[in-house]
């Protein structure tokens, strides 16, 4: 019997390079994935017992009740997922580490005897599978996850800058589906001031912007340096700045407050 269509916050996650791992390692990674997810919901103050989780092999479809604040999902839950992934990597090392893409959308979903479906569910999967999002995670070599929200979630939630959300850390993402539909979203990478790897206006990948003399820079003409996450060893906080020292950097048009003291800013142009 088919149930009634109900509104949910729809979270989908997918593990990077899962199919390239051996069968025993896949089993281990899946166990670690569920441990990270359930712990993250608890740390974010969301009762995991109220979240529908539908297994997808290398990922999970999660339907969160509409009574849960989306600010909690885009803020505390995202940070808890990132913390959990980093903790697993510290324990098991890179060979066992998890890296994932996570998408957040909203809309109606309906349950039948075989699972959940609906256009909103389809859109969430298209977002998490989008090639631009895959490119971002690949370029963010020091990150553990890349997070994309739909246009609706960005406009209704993220852009308002609720406590714990930083709209300036998101960049727009768009792609065409196999059916020719254009889907828009916004992507961020925890630890990075801006997500690397998105195409620039001319279609080429954005060059990360690294402070002159900072670790990871390359001499002129040798290509772009790897992007460093905000807060990495390459970054300099205001508290740790040397007296009289000025750090220069170059970015495009910035939405939001970037500078509060001496800082290194990494990532592509922000527009």
From TrEMBL:
Lineage top rank: taxon: Bacteria
Compositional bias ranges of the Low complexity kind: 210-241
Gene3D superfamilies: Nucleotide cyclase
UniProt-annotated stretches for the region Disordered: 194-244
Protein name: Guanylate cyclase domain-containing protein
